[in-house]
Amino acid sequence: MPKERTGSKAHMKRLVAPPFWPILRKERKWTVKPSPGPHPILRCLPLLIIVRDVLGYAKTAKEARRLIAKGEFKVDGKVRRDYKFPVGFMDVIEIPRLEEYYRVIPYPVKFMALHEISPEEAQFKLCRIENKTMIKGGNIQLNLHDGRNHIIQIANPLNPEEDIYRTYDVIKISIPKQDIVDHVKLEEGAIAIVTGGRNVGRVGRIREIRQIFKRRDAVVTLESNKGENIRTVMKYVFVLGKEEPLISLPKEVIG
């Protein structure tokens, strides 16, 4: 993010906040600036804004901060008391006292929205592999989109049969133990959702992947349920499943 967009290290004016944040730009001068964490500023919502402006459980920032400090909200199975904590795509928000569960998903026009899910679905989340590196002992470290690092133990570095993962594939991990329970490859025929650009929030089946230079800039064509072609670059494609999505989605997103 350019320096003029971030302003102060600790504060942020409402006028320069990301456009998808559900706040009134001229009601107040300042808004909460997300803490450094698993998601960048342009792809997250601070926990305070979710509690006050999205869920409506507080009228003021003071009330929201008090609820958060009491430990009333969990993100990915862990109590978060930092009101600036950045919440991003596929994060699971839990309100134990009310037995409510939400998943943050890409949403058309709004860019980011909370989708209510069942307690069973709140036991896992999907993470995209952004990068992978080899570490000491020949093991593989997966760098995920939400800042997590997951190590794959390799029995024989000369024949790494356990290394079945590739960048932009998606793994399904349990919450909060973070065990890998499933793996979905980014390939033709898979179901995916768009996480950026003008087609954000649209879902379709991958029909073609055309790579010329860098893989992240490959052009991916998806086909929606209505038969429409959706074109975007690979860095905006988030795989949801092989035949059917592993997570539930709103009807308006599925189309």
Task: Explain the overall architecture.
The protein is mostly beta strands. The protein has 4 helices and 19 strands. Strands 5-4-7-8-9 form a 5-stranded antiparallel beta sheet, with no helix packed on it. A 5-stranded antiparallel beta sheet has the order 12-11-10-13-14, with no helix packed on it. Strands 18-17-16-15-19 form a 5-stranded antiparallel beta sheet, with no helix packed on it. The protein is globular, with a radius of gyration of 19 Å. The model has no long low-confidence stretch (mean pLDDT 92).
What can be said about the biggest beta sheet? 5 strands, antiparallel
Number of helices: 4
Shape: globular
Strand/helix succession? HEEEHHEEEEEEEEEEEEEEEEH
Spans of at least 5 consecutive residues with low confidence = none
Mean pLDDT metric: 92
Layout of secondary structure:
Blueprint: H1 3-6, E1 12-13, E2 30-31, E3 45-46, H2 47-54, H3 61-69, E4 74-75, E5 78-79, E6 86-87, E7 92-95, E8 100-107, E9 111-116, E10 124-134, E11 140-144, E12 149-152, E13 170-174, E14 180-184, E15 191-194, E16 203-210, E17 219-223, E18 229-233, E19 237-241, H4 251-254
Antiparallel strand pairs: 1-2, 3-6, 4-5, 4-7, 7-8, 8-9, 10-11, 10-13, 11-12, 13-14, 15-16, 15-19, 16-17, 17-18
